[in-house]
């Protein structure tokens, strides 16, 4: 093998390791100057409001900080700093709404939240007057979500079992495909389907039950997906050991595989529940709103927390809006408790059994 | 290489040679298969029922379903069309994407490559918290907090950038606009875009990043040369998933927009309507022809989101086969 | 290149005092026509947060020579290598104390731009890592395109060809320059990485176990390449293969851990022949003769 080597014949570049660096305090200084400029200029441009001032400050900062870097360090480093600035700004833009939403809900919700709010319904309370509560909505949500889970969790888990333990043919491919597609169905379409399919065609009345069916459709693909993932994590050695003992497949699944994936399955189911608890649109189509308590999900109008909030917003009065915030707070608390419990269950099971199914 | 399927087959054979495919096995298998087929049936049923119930309205529509902007299905003669709805849906979703994808990808970049691992994890978790907030709360917040605070900014847009027709405002009112709805939608789909992008960006092989740095690249040049090209397929599917969510979002939009049935390109002016929001708002006052008309619009929404999701799936499939040959 | 064991041994120790720089380090250096530079490491300590990974290294690397870092795994030889082109600090929390002088200029001085350091001191990694989304041509040109100077296509073509020739890869890839870099064999990919590194005209080449992921034939090809490259560059190579160090290097530095959990340190360094035939330290002798490591 002849070696084709040619020494690099090029004029050597000037090797300058040095580069002027922007001082560390430049960042802080630029921020301060930019904020000052923004506040001062609101006099001239008439931009009030937090959003506008923030934008002006951001632009001023970029001009100062990056311009400084450009002059001192050159184009490449200025571009690098500009990119870092943009990325950090994006992060702030992402965090600000979250903080704002949570803060506003807490602030305005707590103003309304008290024992009376939780234990009274809106019966005989007019939109204009203060007082009243969401007890009727609380009952409704609990019932509807419970019924939805009752339907969705078994079917979702069974489907996942089929896909993981049995699925090899065209049926499995088709089912997997449709589960995927189902994840993307908008919640209002689920409501439309239950309405056209069950209410119009089969005569099921608009009720809490109809609502729970709509919620079940939204939960099904999520439960199926997460259960599938949890089942796939279970090592095959477990299954093989069981078969080697002569245990039939269905018992292997129910006695060996499912228990070891149980923590993850429960967590997945609870996360699915947390997600549908806040759904409003399908409920609007499948139930009638009411201001009173109705513990019967099978007939009659039934309220729920999301529709309660919606109702209060559309009532338009100041008192109603305050109640809407109260409902929003209760909703967030509900969802938080569900998420936290899901994590707790996962942690408890994993810690107790020592099996890392996460 | 033994696949999971082979093991499954081996297992079933082992089980059957020792005890025969017992009744229990057959029943259980049938049970799980039915569950799976049930889900398939549901999807089919959705399509069937939507079409069935939409047809009566489509048949006696005096206007053209696709090009009419007004929505009067209970009038005699009924005139309704989805032109304004389609425009509004695409416009708000488009605005949401325009805002959410750069921010989401930037956040994903920050969490995966700019922050230390521990901070990155916490930040990622916090951004994901946004996903847990129900949409009605975003609508409420958008109405009560964002709307009063953005009027000044939108006015400024009109005053200084009003030569761009889309940013012009001829009404002097800056609330309940499609731009605002787009912003709220963007906030709602941000966690989706960000977390899916993050999953991909985090997998950039460390040695490729080091190779770029070792050849004398700055951090941003490394992102541009190595990290972003590597993550591009994932980012695209993140965007499409976000789009799917934005198209179907109902309540937040319904609260914010001041439903007008017109095609108005000036996005800071009040007005606009989307498929989903329209259904929610018009549902309870809809009459015997109104409901089928709304169902028809729901059908269109269903088909659009179906198409979007299939495209996302295709892209993921294509990436998987490409990586298989690498 | 075999060891001549009968030759009289040279027992001169490597100077532990760094060469006094003749140029004040504040002024930017302009090199003459010599492309390779000398490196003087002075009391270098490498940390990962509070953990001292490598203690007090003092060593000189002559220009246009090959220096090998050998030692058992975990002793810090790769860490020290990465401090030479300021790649160590890329890891979050990692930092360095001490001096690394490139022709008298401390690369860790405040006024130094790490980006320029990495351009001047190139690196080739253990596993070949051509940029996956780029073609062969784009891989070699990647570093060049960064400095923002607009180059004519013909100029770029020339540099790419020269770099590929210098890394003995031109003949094999000249008809497939636009094909993905990742489609080459392991040995070819590594030579591509070498071409990429030398395309930006560095003074020094650092190689971190460049052959450990390659088959024996590719390994020999790379070793031949190193032999020819040392005419133009200063080369430092980390290797866990002692025979390779003996074949390829002029100077060898032996690193070791004093005890598990203790920081690594430089035990001994000197001309390769000396280290391998008559090392001064017992630990070196034990390692060379295979008693550990």
Describe the structure.
The complex is a heterotrimer of chains A (358), B (326) and C (293). With 358 residues, chain A is mainly alpha-helical. Chain A is built from 13 helices and no strands. Chain A is flat. The two termini of chain A are 54 Å apart. The relative contact order of chain A is 0.11. The model of chain A is unreliable at 1-15 and 354-358 (pLDDT under 50). Chain B has a two-stranded antiparallel sheet. Chain C has helices at 77-83, 114-120, 136-146, 153-166, 170-173, 186-199, 216-229, 242-248, 272-277, 282-288; strands at 39-48, 51-61, 66-70, 94-102, 105-106, 121-124, 204-208, 234-238, 251-257, 264-271. Chain C has a 10-stranded mixed beta sheet with strand order 5-4-1-2-10-9-3-8-7-6, sandwiched between helices. In chain C, a hairpin with a 2-residue loop joins strand 1 (39-48) and strand 2 (51-61). In chain C, helix 6 (186-199) runs parallel beside helix 7. The longest helix of chain C is centred in the middle third of the chain and has 14 residues, at 153-166. Chain C is globular and about 55 Å long. The two termini of chain C are 24 Å apart. Classes of the chains: A mainly alpha (358), B mainly alpha (326), C alpha/beta (293). Chains A and B meet through helix 2, helix 3, helix 5, helix 6 and helix 7 of A and helix 1, helix 2, helix 3, helix 4 and helix 5 of B.
Topology, element by element:
The complex is a heterotrimer of chains A (358), B (326) and C (293).
Chain A: H1 26-45, H2 50-73, H3 75-110, H4 115-119, H5 135-166, H6 170-183, H7 187-201, H8 208-233, H9 236-244, H10 249-277, H11 281-286, H12 305-315, H13 318-353
Chain B: H1 4-19, H2 23-59, E1 71-72, E2 79-80, H3 83-114, H4 117-132, H5 135-161, H6 178-201, H7 206-214, H8 219-248, H9 251-256, H10 275-282, H11 290-325
Antiparallel strand pairs in B: 1-2
Helix pairs in contact in B: 2-11, 3-4, 3-6, 3-8, 4-6, 5-6, 6-8, 7-8, 8-11, 10-11
Chain C: E1 39-48, E2 51-61, E3 66-70, H1 77-83, E4 94-102, E5 105-106, H2 114-120, E6 121-124, H3 136-146, H4 153-166, H5 170-173, H6 186-199, E7 204-208, H7 216-229, E8 234-238, H8 242-248, E9 251-257, E10 264-271, H9 272-277, H10 282-288
Parallel strand pairs in C: 2-10, 3-8, 3-9, 6-7, 7-8
Antiparallel strand pairs in C: 1-2, 1-4, 4-5, 9-10
Helix pairs in contact in C: 3-4, 3-6, 4-6, 6-7
């Amino acid at each position: 093998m002849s070696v084709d080597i040619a020494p690099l014949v090029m004029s050597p570049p000037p090797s300058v390791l040095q580069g002027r660096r922007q001082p560390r305090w430049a960042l802080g200084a630029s921020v301060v100057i930019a904020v000052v400029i923004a506040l001062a200029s609101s006099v001239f441009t008439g931009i009030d409001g937090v959003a506008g001032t923030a934008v002006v400050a951001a632009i001023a900062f970029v001009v100062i900080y990056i311009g400084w870097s450009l002059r001192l360090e050159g184009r490449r480093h200025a571009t690098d700093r500009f990119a870092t600035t943009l990325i950090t700004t994006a992060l702030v833009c992402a965090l600000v709404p979250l903080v704002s939403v949570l803060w506003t809900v807490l602030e305005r919700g707590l103003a309304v939240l008290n024992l009376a709010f939780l234990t009274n319904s809106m019966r005989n309370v007019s939109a204009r007057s203060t007082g009243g509560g969401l007890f009727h909505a609380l009952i409704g949500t609990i019932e509807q979500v419970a019924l939805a889970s009752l339907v969705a969790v078994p079917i979702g888990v069974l489907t996942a079992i089929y896909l993981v333990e049995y699925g090899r043919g065209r049926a499995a491919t088709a089912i997997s495909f449709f589960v995927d597609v189902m994840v993307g169905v908008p919640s209002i379409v689920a409501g439309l389907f239950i309405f056209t399919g069950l209410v119009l065609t089969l005569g099921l009345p608009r009720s809490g039950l109809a609502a729970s069916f709509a919620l079940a459709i939204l939960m099904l693909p999520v439960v199926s997906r997460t259960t599938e993932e949890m089942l796939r994590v279970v090592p095959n050695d477990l299954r093989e050991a069981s078969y080697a003992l002569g245990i039939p497949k269905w018992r292997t699944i129910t006695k060996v595989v499912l228990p070891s994936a149980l923590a993850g399955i429960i967590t997945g189911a609870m996360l699915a529940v947390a997600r549908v608890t806040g759904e409003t649109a399908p409920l609007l189509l499948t139930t009638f709103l009411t201001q009173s308590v109705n513990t019967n999900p099978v007939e009659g109008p039934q309220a729920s927390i999301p529709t309660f909030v919606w109702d209060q917003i559309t009532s338009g009065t100041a008192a109603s809006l305050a109640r809407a915030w109260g409902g929003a707070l209760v909703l967030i608390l509900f969802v938080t408790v569900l998420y936290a419990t899901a994590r707790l269950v996962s942690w408890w099971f994993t810690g107790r059994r020592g099996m890392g199914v996460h | 290489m033994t696949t999971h399927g082979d093991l499954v087959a081996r297992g079933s054979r082992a089980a059957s040679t020792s005890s025969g495919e017992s009744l229990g096995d057959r029943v259980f298998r049938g049970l799980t298969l039915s569950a799976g087929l049930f889900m398939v049936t549901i999807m089919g049923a959705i399509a069937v029922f939507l079409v069935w119930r939409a047809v009566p309205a489509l048949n006696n529509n005096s206007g053209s379903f696709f090009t009419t902007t007004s929505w009067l299905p209970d009038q005699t003669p009924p005139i309704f069309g989805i032109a304004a709805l389609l425009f509004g849906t695409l416009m708000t979703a488009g605005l949401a994407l325009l805002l959410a994808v750069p921010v989401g990808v930037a956040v994903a970049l920050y969490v995966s490559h700019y922050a230390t691992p521990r901070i990155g994890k916490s930040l990622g978790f916090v951004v994901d918290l946004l996903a847990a907030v129900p949409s009605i709360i975003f609508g409420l917040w958008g109405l009560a907090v964002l709307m009063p605070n953005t009027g000044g900014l939108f006015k400024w847009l009109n005053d200084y950038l009003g030569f761009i027709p889309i940013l012009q405002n001829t009404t002097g009112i800056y609330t309940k606009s499609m731009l605002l709805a787009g912003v709220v939608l963007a906030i709602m789909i941000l966690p989706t875009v960000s977390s899916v992008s993050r999953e991909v960006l985090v997998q950039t092989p460390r040695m490729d990043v080091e190779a770029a740095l070792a050849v004398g690249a700055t951090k941003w040049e490394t992102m541009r040369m190595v990290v972003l090209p590597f993550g591009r397929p994932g980012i695209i599917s993140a965007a499409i998933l976000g789009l799917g969510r934005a198209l179907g979002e109902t309540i937040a939009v319904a609260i914010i927009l001041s439903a007008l049935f017109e095609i108005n390109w000036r996005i800071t002016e009040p007005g606009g309507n989307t498929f989903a929001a329209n259904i929610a708002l018009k549902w309870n006052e809809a009459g015997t022809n109104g409901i089928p008309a709304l169902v028809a619009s729901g059908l269109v929404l269903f088909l659009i989101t179906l198409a979007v999701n299939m495209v996302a799936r295709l892209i993921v499939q294509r990436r998987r086969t490409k990586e298989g040959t690498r | 290149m075999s060891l001549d064991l009968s030759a009289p041994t040279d027992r001169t120790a490597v100077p532990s005092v760094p060469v006094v720089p003749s140029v004040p380090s504040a002024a930017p250096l302009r090199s003459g026509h010599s492309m390779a530079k000398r490196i003087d490491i002075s009391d270098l300590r490498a940390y990962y947060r509070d953990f001292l990974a490598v203690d007090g290294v003092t060593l000189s690397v002559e220009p246009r020579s090959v220096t090998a870092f050998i030692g058992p795994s975990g002793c810090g030889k790769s860490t020290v290598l990465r401090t030479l082109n300021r790649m160590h600090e890329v890891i979050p929390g990692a930092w360095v104390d001490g001096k690394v002088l490139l022709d008298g200029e401390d690369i860790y001085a405040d006024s130094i731009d790490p980006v320029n350091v990495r351009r001047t001191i190139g690196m080739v990694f253990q596993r070949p890592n051509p940029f996956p989304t780029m073609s062969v041509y784009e891989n070699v040109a990647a570093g060049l395109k960064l400095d923002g100077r607009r180059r004519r296509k013909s100029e770029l073509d020339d540099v790419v060809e020269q770099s590929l020739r210098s890394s003995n890869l031109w003949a094999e890839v000249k008809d497939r320059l636009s094909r993905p870099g990742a489609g080459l064999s392991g040995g070819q990919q590594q030579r591509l990485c070498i071409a990429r590194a030398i395309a930006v005209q560095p003074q020094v080449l650092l190689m971190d176990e460049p052959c450990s992921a390659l088959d024996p034939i590719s390994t020999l090809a790379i070793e031949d390449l190193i032999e020819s490259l040392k005419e133009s560059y200063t080369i430092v190579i980390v290797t866990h293969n002692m025979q390779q160090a003996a074949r390829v290097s002029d100077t060898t530095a032996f690193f070791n851990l004093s005890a598990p959990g203790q920081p690594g340190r430089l035990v001994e360094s000197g001309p390769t022949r000396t280290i391998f035939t008559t090392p001064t330290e017992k630990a070196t002798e034990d390692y060379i003769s295979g008693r550990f490591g």
